[in-house]
Amino acid sequence: MHTRRLDDRIRYLSTQINGAPEGEVDSILQELLAAIHEKLERLRTRAARQFLHGQASEERRTVPTNG
């Protein structure tokens, strides 16, 4: 799952908890926790790569400038 999709999934699950029937809250929370865990692992990997190797990963959301 790409980062953008993962972020969108976290947002979606967060909004679903609010209106979910009581019987579905636990399963939604488990999905949300798994998505947050995956996001944190990606951030750890990215930070370690940058710290250890001096390689900053390219930010997907930025627009390249021509100047």
Helix content: over 70%
- Low-pLDDT parts are none
- Taken as a percent bin, the fraction of beta residues is under 5%
| C-alpha termini separation | 33 Å
Average pLDDT taken over every residue: 85
Sum up the overall morphology in one term.
Answer: elongated
Instruction: State Rg.
Output: 16 Å
Counting DSSP E segments of at least 2 residues, the number of strands comes to 0
Largest sheet: none
Can you describe this structure?
The chain has a domain at 1-6 and 22-49. It has two helices and no strands. The chain has 67 residues and is an all-alpha fold. The model has no long low-confidence stretch (mean pLDDT 85). Helix 1 runs antiparallel to helix 2 (22-53). The protein is elongated.
Notable characteristics:
67 residues, 0% strand, mainly alpha
Give the SSE map.
Blueprint: H1 3-19, H2 22-53
Brief account:
This protein has 67 residues and is mainly alpha-helical.
